[in-house]
Design goal:
Keywords: DNA-binding, Transcription, Transcription regulation. By secondary structure, the protein is mainly alpha-helical. The chain has 7 helices and 5 strands. The chain has a domain of 121 residues: Winged helix-like DNA-binding domain superfamily/Winged helix DNA-binding domain (Arc Repressor Mutant, subunit A, Orthogonal Bundle). The strands form 2 sheets. Strands 2-4-3 form a 3-stranded antiparallel beta sheet.
Amino acid sequence: MTDRVTLDSAALRVLAHPTRLALLGHLRRHGPATARRLAELFGIDSGAASYHLRRLASGGLIEEDTERGNKRDRWWRAKHAQSLHDPATFPGERADSRAYAQALALAAADELRRVAGAVPVLPDAWFDASVFSDHTLRLTPDGLEALKRELHAVIERHAENPEPDDVTPVSVRLQAYPLPEE
């Protein structure tokens, strides 16, 4: 698996669906799985899971894990650990960028609902290390661009650190956008 991929227009179109984002995220975090297992985890029909997995494969985001499974159960794995998409670098793909961003926001909202249910039972060390914050900044588009670059640089520094044996996947979300009118 490669570290990251920059999303092109075709990949953006494939990922413009919250279910596909969720399936890809699961494969990244937990490793290979079958359509049947993913369908159980996400409460969807196994045929729908298979369809979404084939779409992810056609977009070059996942691949069949041929070392596992049989004719009845196909295993799938992510081809990369991280997707990168900066709308400013692909101005000709605005519609695809917007659809992807919308699906990403919907998937994040679903994940936050699951996290909210787990907060009461988080071990103290993980709860103390977590952060749930909300900041409203007043920025220009250039100011938001500068903030985005700085935050990504911090994440990159931490992503490059060698991992000890006792690590746990941690979700880091950067959501910065102008607030809609009330």
